[in-house]
Amino acid sequence: MFIRNNKIMKITDLVEKDDLLCDPNKDFAPYTGKVEGNVKGELIDGMLNGEWVELFENGKIASIINYNKNKMSGNYKTFYSNGNAKEEGKVYDNKWDGLFINYYENGNLREKKNYNKGTLNGKYNYYYNNGKVKEDKLYVDGKLEGDCFNYYSTGEIWIKSQYKNGKLEGNREVYFEGGKLEKTELYKNGFKVGKPHH
């Protein structure tokens, strides 16, 4: 709902026109005012601005997202309906920027990744719900680079791969649980070369 001149307006009373929320009672002029209800925030000239808070039906916070002229910009945080954090990071001009963290519903860490202006750049880790690392990788300008590791839920190494400019390059080693090498494959420019060594 929206407040207009101390009156409460429902969001359904506003009309979307050219990506702006407009007031049909004022010749469809872009709406300026505060928002109340399951979403709280402010519109300026029909555009989302500042901090917007969305609530679940149970009254708990679903998300806190900052906007600048209809574009996400600043802190970004979402939650599960139980109140635990789901995702958090920063976004500028609708693009992720910096560290982005994702959680399981029970609160355990699920994923950590780094962005530079919307492109994956830097260390990337994905975790099992038990807290052990599942994937350990490095991105450079959106492409995998260097040694990449996949692990079993026990923490033992499963796959060790090497990447160059986003393509498999060099040895790719696959292990059985318990640590014994299952096979080694050789890659060149993303293509498998020869037969695997057992």
Jot down its keywords:
3-stranded antiparallel β-sheet; disordered N terminus; single chain; 20-stranded antiparallel β-sheet; mainly beta; 198 residues; 23 strands
Q: Would you mind describing this structure in some detail?
A:
This protein is an all-beta fold. It has strands spanning 2-4, 7-9, 15-17, 20-23, 29-30, 33-35, 39-44, 47-55, 61-68, 71-79, 85-92, 95-96, 98-103, 109-116, 119-127, 133-140, 143-144, 146-151, 157-164, 167-168, 170-175, 181-188, 191-197. It has a 20-stranded antiparallel sheet that branches. A hairpin with a 2-residue loop joins strand 11 (85-92) and strand 12.
H and E string = EEEEEEEEEEEEEEEEEEEEEEE
Q: Which residues form runs of ≥5 with pLDDT under 50?
A: 1-8
Question: What is the average of the pLDDT values?
Answer: 88
Distance between the termini: 65 Å
The share of residues in helices is under 10%
Q: Rg, please?
A: 24 Å
Question: Structural class of the secondary structure composition?
Answer: mainly beta
Count of helical segments?
A: 0
What proportion of the residues form beta strands (DSSP E)?
over 45%
Please count the beta strands (DSSP E, at least 2 residues each): 23
Please describe the biggest sheet, giving its number of strands, its sense, and whether it closes into a barrel: 20 strands, antiparallel
Question: Judging from the principal axes of the Cα atoms, what is the shape?
Answer: elongated
